[in-house]
Design goal:
alpha/beta, binds coenzyme A, 11 strands, elongated
């Protein structure tokens, strides 16, 4: 049995943020029914396509373990089908633009009327306030949630990060809200609204920067490189390059091969408790007792020189050699692993964090499996559904439609052409 077995999710999500949430719930065992517009479906099916006519990797990697029903919810028959799905599902998840669900005739009041036990979970770009009506994508959230202003180098522009903290990050937040609401429902018997705004999700992940904003009012941020360089602070938390956020000075340093390999680098942290070991490893034992280097506070103004010296050592070794040597001394470090290296890493395949999935029209492809491991509910990754692949199955098995019902809905245009009929033609 899977952790969420028996939980039915009406998945009205699209693009990235919502689908990451429902994919997680599917991996935990929920029955996720993805509702898509006939013809086109989730817009990502066709975005960044690498094989003509085949669902994109963007789509397949965000929609594993789901069933797909095509439904035009603006068609009266389609609306009826949606109402029936609302009545029998435990959770409805959506990430439409603000107001879209209401315009479709599915206000929270109406949804509760149909099913008082249902949990309605929504992702929006912003919470209530001046921007609540805005449409939002990943990088908008990174910029408005504090990530971009604090990422990058001081003398460069704000930077977005490749980690999709706005979309996938908020999807994770929403998933937690949903399972929490399901838990509360076991006591109250009632559903509730769960909302996660992308701005809030990003800000939550940037918590340490709001910490520093307040520390700044009391004086310079001494662990930031710019302190050691004598550059004064302004009134907002600056971009900190590769400084670590935890107060232990850290930098990304070149390793052997950096001239030709863009990823021949390692993250090196000069953690105070292992300073003496660092001095030995890099061939500077004298620094252990030298008052200019022995104590963390004395080192702060000299971080550039210290890291340049360490880099002279890291440049003589590959990033993997550096990692092996440092870990012998419990000195934390992190080689910069490329996507290629991660895709080929056997241990990630062994744990199911990287999985190979077979798809009927695409063939085999790699994806990221469930990063959250439950010992009693392991996640088996199954391929994403073709558009409308399960329409008939859902009408018949989930909603109990008869042949006549199915014919009526199909002829109304509400579900598009059923896969069995398309195949027969
Ligand atoms: N049947 C009929 N109509 C459907 C439908 C279906 N199955 N599915 C969607 N629609 C309609 C919606 O009702 C809406 O119609 P309306 O504008 O006439 O009311 C329309 O399709 C478009 O929906 P919308 O959400 O506005 O899509 P968009 O492509 O214009 O905007 C986003 C995309 C992501 C910007 C927007 O959905 C958004 O801001 N979402 C919230 C934040 C978010 O999750 N962003 C990150 C996405 S990764």
């Amino acid at each position: 049995m899977k952790a969420l077995e028996g939980v039915k999710i009406l998945d009205f999500t699209h693009v990235q943020s919502g689908p990451t949430c429902t994919q997680l719930l599917a991996w935990f065992g929920a029955d996720v029914i993805k509702v898509e517009r006939p013809g086109e479906g989730d817009i990502t099916r066709g975005q960044l396509r690498d094989i003509p006519g085949v669902d994109s990797l963007y789509f397949t990697m965000l929609n594993h373990n789901k069933r797909s029903i095509t439904l035009d919810t603006k068609n009266p028959e389609g609306k009826k089908v949606l109402e029936q799905l609302v009545k029998i599902c435990d959770v409805m998840v959506e990430n439409f633009a603000p107001g879209a669900l209401d315009r479709m005739g599915f206000s929270w009041a109406r949804i509760q009327e149909l099913n008082p036990r249902i949990i309605l979970a929504s992702i929006k770009g912003f919470g209530p306030g001046p921007y609540e009506d805005c449409k939002v994508y990943e990088n908008v959230a990174q910029c408005t949630g504090g990530a971009a202003s604090t990422t990058g180098f001081r003398d460069g522009p704000p930077l977005v990060t490749g980690a999709q903290i706005g979309d996938s990050g908020t999807g994770l937040h929403l998933a937690l809200g949903i399972v929490t609401a399901l838990f509360q429902r076991t006591n109250t018997g009632r559903g509730q609204r769960v909302t996660a705004a992308m701005q809030d999700g990003v800000l939550n992940l940037c918590r340490v920067k709001l910490r520093d904003q307040q520390r700044l009012a009391r004086g310079p941020l001494t662990e930031y490189s710019q302190y050691g360089e004598g550059v004064p602070f302004g009134d907002a938390v600056p971009r900190a390059g590769n400084d670590s956020g935890g107060g232990q000075p850290g930098r990304i340093l070149k390793c052997k091969g950096w001239e030709t390999d863009p990823n021949a680098y390692i993250y090196f942290i000069t953690q105070a408790p292992v300073w003496e070991k660092i001095c030995d490893v890099i061939g500077k034992p004298g620094w252990k007792t030298d008052p200019e280097y022995a104590k963390p506070a004395a080192r702060l103004p000299k971080l550039n020189h210290i890291f340049e010296t360490i880099e002279e050592w890291t440049k003589t070794k590959t990033k993997f050699e550096v990692m092996e040597i440092l870990n012998n001394y419990d000195i934390p470090c992190g080689p910069i692993l490329s996507m290629k290296e991660l895709a080929e890493e056997p241990s990630l395949r062994d744990t199911g964090t990287i999985v190979e999935v077979d798809h009927p029209t695409r063939g085999k492809y790699l994806s990221v499996g469930n990063p959250i491991k439950l010992s009693d509910s392991p996640a088996d990754v199954t391929r994403s559904p073709l558009l409308g692949e399960h329409t008939e199955e859902i009408l018949r098995q989930v909603l109990g439609y008869s042949d006549a019902d199915v014919r009526r809905v199909e002829s109304s245009g509400a579900v598009g052409q059923l896969a069995s009929h398309a195949a027969a033609q």
